[in-house]
Amino acid sequence: MRAWIRRLAIAALAAAVLAGVGLAALYSALDRPGPLGGPAIVVIPKGKGVAPIAELLERHGVVASAFVFRGGVRLTGNQSRLRAGEYEFPAGISPRGVMEVLVAGRTLVRKLTIPEGATTAQALRILHGAYGLQGELPRTPEEGSLLPDTYHYSYGDQRHELVARMEQAMVEVTTRLWQGRARNVPLNSPREAIILASIVERETALGSERSLVAGVFVNRLNRGMALQSDPTVAYGVALKEAVPDRVLRRPLTRADLTAPSPYNTYVNKGLPPQPIANPGRAALEAVLNPAATKALYFVADGKGGHVFARTLAEHNRNVRRWRRILKQRRAAGSKSRTRGQTP
Predict the structure, then answer these.
(1) Residue 100 is assigned to a structural domain of this protein
(2) By C-alpha distance, which of 286, 309, 312 is closest to 299?
(3) Which H/E stretch holds residue 198?
(4) Considering its fold, how many domains does the chain have in total?
(5) pLDDT tens digits for 104-148?
(6) DSSP state string for 282-307
């Protein structure tokens, strides 16, 4: 009887020793560098348990052994703490390191940029093309309601939530800038500021000109003059012709400039009925604190910017100069095409 007890004790001791050796081996394996030779991005789906997550990580080469990772998670009591999402794992990360990333929920942060002056249709196209965003929009945002900026999001975020952030950002920025507006600005509400800023945004691509262009439009509004802005006319034509993205890609004709339209600021005085794009912070700042200028006109200078004038006579000279530049460019382009033809 005593011999049987002795043998049982020896067997128990051996099992304990083996278990200890096994735990030591598992702990060692958890801290050993993994097989990744470079960064890898893996999406952990929602509702998955430890076993399928471990197998997924092994398939993607993040861990060498699903068994080791699964054992490590259970050994540390993290079975219910692994979070779903998109993760980027660095080269050589250990199984313990992978587990810590998943428990902390350090998901990959993605970026989406809406450029200044983009129409809402253009912004939505960017939004629908953004990898990882999900869901449809219950409504189409109004023109001018989205603040152009770079927004961060994670895989699985909802599109309507990101749109709501863009709309809230526009409200907050416009409200803050409105409170510090200049006294001579002939605008009655933040919405009117957005409308004028959208026109400035589409008139010039140069940040150094925004305030001066805004100053010209403010001067014209204060004098009761029509804005005579080509981009407003183009937007109205794009709406009428159902042009994609609401961006007209052909030159305006004389008929366009004389046709009745709520957006034709050649025939209508004051602002158009709504924004023609989504203006950025700089354009909003420009219209609410425009440059002090006496200029009433501007036209392209042929170098990517504009030349400004105080009188109509001076402006007409600038227009004639611009037309000569256009004529020279067309002639040069025609010669270039002729040279490229095969005899």
Answers:
(1) yes
(2) 309
(3) helix 190-203
(4) 3
(5) 999 999 999 999 999 999 999 999 999 999 999 999 999 999 999
(6) HHHHHHHS-------EEEE-SSSSEE
